[in-house]
Specification:
This is T9SS type A sorting domain-containing protein. By secondary structure, the protein is mainly beta. The chain has three helices and 24 strands. The protein has a five-stranded mixed β-sheet with strand order 17-24-23-20-21, covered by helices on one side. A four-stranded antiparallel β-sheet has the order 1-2-3-4.
């Protein structure tokens, strides 16, 4: 964001900035959302100790205030400094969460920047002081992280407020040292949700299938060991791109071990050989950022996939044969 320093020195702020200061920003996070034109941004600013929000528009011409809106009746108090706000990837929802005061979920209009129809839920009364929220890639589920637990809410339900499911509690009996709590989760480039801890944990937990309801989302605790300690929160990735290519939730049995994958796939140069014995099925190939590159349906039980024309980088191959689900990660040199 650029400011006109000459104006600041002369104490002549532009009109937009004069309007900003008529209220106090809440210490909770600001959030931005891409507009329908694919180049401009909406920015929503919660106001402190209030049900009101400032709505801004950031374009090539600068930052403009659109208006001030007051919605609902829920006010966050003095612990708002640990709250978080976020938009759903499909840009239809805006949510705010503070462990002390619960979740606020709004409908969001990406054409006008307006928020409305608030819902309030997951009020734990400050059982844990820290935590954040994350939408699933398909925007149908909301995950709530609060240090020792992860909950999931179904946003397609007629009763979102009562749809919460406990996914898991923090396992402290793994024998690993310096484990990470469930403080914050973000969608990664591969469509998974990565969960960071608080106060120096050295691991990330992973939700492999975040579009899936309940235990089928496949949470793996302390899945990724980091080269150093990770503290407080996951970074906000610019994930407002098309997540339609991210794999859907399927009723399958996941085979995740390296040994099983090697029996199914084998890389020889620029060719991938696969063998699923006597059943036909389908294969999908994804780039490292979760984009669908190619899908092959009703392929023979064994065969060869050429990656000669692929650009160098990492890829994920998924295959479904009968009731089984396989994944294979490869690097094209």
């Amino acid at each position: 964001m650029e400011l006109n320093f000459k104006n600041i020195l002369n104490q002549h702020l532009e009109n937009n900035w004069n309007q900003v200061h008529y209220d106090t920003f809440a210490p909770g996070h600001l959030s931005a959302c891409l507009q329908d034109n694919g180049k401009d941004w909406w920015i929503i600013v919660p106001l402190d100790a209030s049900t009101c929000y400032l709505i801004y528009e950031y374009t090539s011409t600068g930052l403009n205030i659109v208006g001030r809106t007051c919605v609902g009746n829920k006010i966050y108090g003095e612990l708002d400094f640990v709250s978080t706000t976020t938009f759903s990837p499909d840009r239809t929802k805006y949510a705010r969460y503070c462990p002390r005061y619960g979740v606020q979920l709004f409908d969001f209009d990406s054409k006008t920047g307006a928020i409305n129809r608030p819902k309030y839920f997951h009020e734990e009364g400050g059982r844990q002081p820290y935590g954040e929220i994350c939408f699933s890639p398909d925007s149908k589920l909301l995950y709530v992280f609060s240090i020792d637990s992860i909950y999931q809410y179904d946003l397609t339900s007629d009763h979102v407020e009562s749809s919460g499911i406990l996914i898991d509690t923090l396992d402290q009996s793994t024998g690993k040292t310096n484990i990470s709590a469930f403080n914050s989760g973000r969608i990664g480039p591969d469509g998974r949700i990565y969960i960071g801890g608080l106060a120096g944990g050295q691991y990330l937990s992973v939700i492999n299938n975040p579009n899936c309801r309940g235990k089928k989302c496949e949470l793996i605790q302390q899945a990724v060991r980091l080269p150093g300690n990770h503290d407080y929160t996951m970074t906000y990735a610019p994930y407002f791109y098309d997540f339609k290519g991210v794999r859907e939730c399927k009723e399958t049995n996941s085979v995740d071990s390296k040994e099983a994958n090697l029996k199914v796939f084998e890389k020889r140069g620029d060719f991938i050989y696969y063998n699923f014995k006597d059943k036909s099925g389908w294969i999908s190939i994804y780039s490292i950022n979760g984009k669908l590159i190619k899908t092959m349906k009703n392929v023979s039980p064994s065969g060869v996939i050429s990656i000669e024309d692929y650009t160098p980088g990492a890829y994920l191959i998924q295959a479904n044969w009968g009731i089984f689900h396989y994944e294979y990660k490869l690097v094209k040199n």
